[in-house]
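step: validate -> pass
step: tokenize input -> pass
step: predict -> running
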Amino acid sequence: MRPALVSIDPGVHSCAVVAWAAPTSGPTPSGVTLYRGALTTHCSAAETPLQVLELLDGWGFLGAPVCVEVPVKYNTRRSTHKDITTLLQVVAGIRVAYPADRFFGVTPFAWKGNTPKGIQASRILSALTKAEHEAVSWPKKSLAHNVIDAIGIGLRRAGRLGRGST
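step: predict -> pass
step: emit ->
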């Protein structure tokens, strides 16, 4: 197993992190398989990037390229975007640990288009093998969508999942 990619769905108090490995021998359809996936423990936004890096270090994936969902801050009449601003700070905290050629940011629209969440989740889960599904430490149901999104980001980056309805 060789570390190939890490995909992350950032959160204010935890991040969904998925590690993807390339085989040491023999081709696979996409070249990468899901190695491990988990949700970091609940903590402050300032601590979240450190938890991500510690998790990746423990898995042996600290140097792998990372693909992170980057939220988009749209102009609205609302005066604050507190959650989005905090998410962008979490992403920035992860970003500083990586050289430019190993960090890839992707907007939600870029990787999933306008596909409804339930449909997209079904597509993501059906793209996994049984072994890949079992490699994930699934959180409680109310938080599982975060891990599913991190898997989707990785599948999209690896070429195993089209954007939206493609």
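step: describe -> Residues 141-158 form the longest helix (18 residues).
step: cleanup -> pass
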